[in-house]
Design a protein that fits this description.
With about 170 residues, the chain is mainly α. It has eight helices and no strands.
């Protein structure tokens, strides 16, 4: 019995050579838990999970791309629109899909319009036109651009009316 050799471990049994076929869902679960906590108005707990995912260097890129819009949503739910501008700018830059970029830019432009920053709002409505081809979003962006150009002094009321008639 002593002379019998033990079978050598197969390479797939070796823990160092083990490769997961699927990505662990722990980070996805934390993201969804933060979303749920925001909806239940438990903002401190949600912020804790968002911070934990943000600070973890092993957070997957797909999860990291969803953190900036989630942070902005949290701030909007807390009625802190001015603080939500920075995460929304980050969300526009990080988004992969053009429709997501357009949506985030539209929300960003609306926030800037609310705080009275007409120039930045106008610029972000232009970004919306660059990223979208949806009629409804494009129409609303053009309407808001006409309003902001008049409010910021870039254009006259006749220019705004002409742009609206052209639409």
């Amino acid at each position: 019995k002593k002379d019998e050799k033990k079978p050598e471990p197969k390479p797939e049994d070796d823990p160092e050579n083990y490769f997961l076929k699927h990505r662990p869902v722990y980070q996805d679960a934390m993201l969804w838990l933060a979303k749920t906590l925001i909806e239940r108005d438990k903002f401190d707990a949600a912020q804790r999970y968002i911070n934990q995912l943000n600070e973890d260097p092993t957070t997957f890129d797909e999860i990291r791309k969803e953190l900036a819009p989630l942070q902005a949503y949290l701030l909007l739910k807390q009625r802190q629109g001015q603080l939500a501008i920075a995460p929304l700018e980050q969300a526009v830059d990080m988004a992969d899909k053009r429709t997501d970029k357009a949506r985030y830019a539209f929300i960003l432009a609306q926030l800037q319009q609310q705080i009275g920053n007409s120039d930045a709002a106008y610029a972000n409505f232009e970004r919306v036109l660059k990223y979208t081809n949806e009629y409804e979003m494009e129409f609303n962006a053009r309407m808001n651009m006409a309003t902001n150009s008049w409010a910021s002094g870039r254009g006259t009321s006749q220019d705004a009316v002409a742009n609206l008639n052209k639409m």
